[in-house]
Amino acid sequence: MTREEKKKLLGDRYEKYTIPIDSELARSARSHSAGMLGGSSSLGNFRVTGDGTAGGLTKAISVSGSSPATLTPSELGRQELYTQVPFQAVFGLQRKEREISKAFANYAADLDVASAKDLSDKEKSLRQSQASMIILDEMEFDAQVVTTPLVFAIIVASTCQFLVGYNTGVMNAPEKVVFPGHSTTAWAMAVAAFAVGGPFGAALGGKMADQRGRRGAMLIDVWIFLLGGLLQTIAQDILTIIIARLIIGFASGYSSTVVPIYLGEMAPPTLRGTLGTLTQFCLVIGILIADLMAFPFATEGGWRVLFAVTMIVAILQLLMSPFLLESPRWLLNRDPSSLRARYIIKRLRGLRDEHQVEQEVGNFIIGETAQHQDEGTQASILKELWAHPKRRTLLLSSLVLQMGQQLSGINAVFYYSTSFFEGIISNPLIGTTIIGAVNVAATYVALLLMDSCGRKSLILWSSGGMFLSCIVVVLSLLGFLNNILALVAVNVYVCCFEIGLGPIPWLIVAEVIEGKYVAIAMSLCSQLNWACNFVVGMVFPYLNLYLGPYSFVPFAFVLGFVFFYALLILPETQGKTPQELVAEMARRNSQSMVYEVNEDEAGAIDLEWRKAMEQLMKEEQAQMNKGTYDYGFQPIDSNSHNF
């Protein structure tokens, strides 16, 4: 994005927050890195001219006529991360975060060496290595600071994903004890209703997050889980179970959209991949917990306890809701001068100095500028996304992989494995629980493979391994192989899913599609994913009934198609090489800008800022005491209190 495009998007914000390079604040901001890297002759002295020559490291050009403004290399690196890492918490995104950090550290260190005089090759190499390590260490410092407000945000958001996983697996075991005598169709509808509500929740989640705020949208999700869990627990017939599952499915689809956004905007860029991984672990652990709880409670007298877990967990989430903070990105988008956003940033990042707070505000605004999605209808944005051949291929590949993910039959295993294992092993619950445990372990293995393998290669291994597993399952059910091999094959099938078809369809969107298109692409993928999920949940009981030992054959055909699509069409989406990233940064930083505090205003606003924050905390505490605090349902007035 050019300087003119950024100026157009930011409007008044572009010119308001600049600082002359020779001011005290600018000098103090550079002093730390300058001291660590050799004093006045080191990185603290860098300045890049407007043409991007190797004369320095400027990423800020004042448009108000003053000298170019300069930040420390680590501060510029953080802005680079905010610019390049999507505001989404996605499983496996850690690699992209590290690659950007390392590339920028190398880029900054190269500029440092280029500015040095009379150094031998050995001294240049040593200087480059030391500078790169110091800058990288400072850039990744954010990942080591986890504050209490961020912890509460992580707990509540991750628990929503736990409930998604729990309700994926909770219907697996109690089929025979929940209102005995129901038909196959009725139970299939109860299971598949979960996926019917999903796409509607996914579609509405993003809209509610924009309208009500990320915090408000999260709390609405918790209330929907509570309603669905309560209705399912007190149900008096199978129809009520179906309605409750529809509501819980809506909450789950809603969660799949809101949780990555909320955590991605609350966490610094260096933590977004980690938190995405955490939420994925919460989901698979939820499936495992549902399997384990089936042992004591999948009985005629205990099945309501299984369903009550959703309600109880939602109540615990609501008890923690007073500690949840709103997304600073959402607040700043509505009002760049929001004091509430600054108060939240200070608490989230554990900052002590108001100037540091303003620097972090700048990071959010720069990141929003780079990832800004132009206003327009969904159709017009999709048309723009589809018009570019490379973007079109990536979007089409993402959609094909989302279909392959669900139509591969993975949720047939999590929904119906207990009934599937009847007659194959003596206690089907044991087989189901083994699958749940293997699923958790395979998720960890997948995390390790993300750092060393290409995305296309993982899809090929994943779909190929799942295809062969389906063949072994069919041969075992036909009697050509021992029954125990069917159990082994299903576990291999789950392992192969987790290393490829599980995470990569989502990761491709976050890794390689431009930031401003990520939201719309994620929304499309989520809705298609839930729709295919419904098809599998509804159809598999009939496949099992009418095809018998051949019930996994349709899944094998889908997996064969995915394999050949990946082999012949899918591009390698692992990302740019370090050299390409450095070259791109050099081009981008030659004409760029940063957001900084105006020195003349900085001292004057400190006292006012502190008073405003004290007043804000008093007002919120008074609202909590009176019971009028906004927990997600009161209308938000963007003009009140300048928030």
From TrEMBL:
Main location (coarse class): membrane
Residue intervals passing through the bilayer: 145-166, 186-204, 216-235, 241-263, 275-297, 303-325, 429-449, 458-478, 484-510, 552-570
Source species, domain of life: Eukaryota
Pfam families: Sugar_tr (PF00083)
Topology of the protein relative to the lipid bilayer: Multi-pass membrane protein
GO terms under cellular component: membrane
UniProt subunit comment: Homodimer.
The name this protein goes by in its record: Hexose transporter 1
Organism of derivation: Nitzschia inconspicua
Lineage: Eukaryota, Sar, Stramenopiles, Ochrophyta, Bacillariophyta
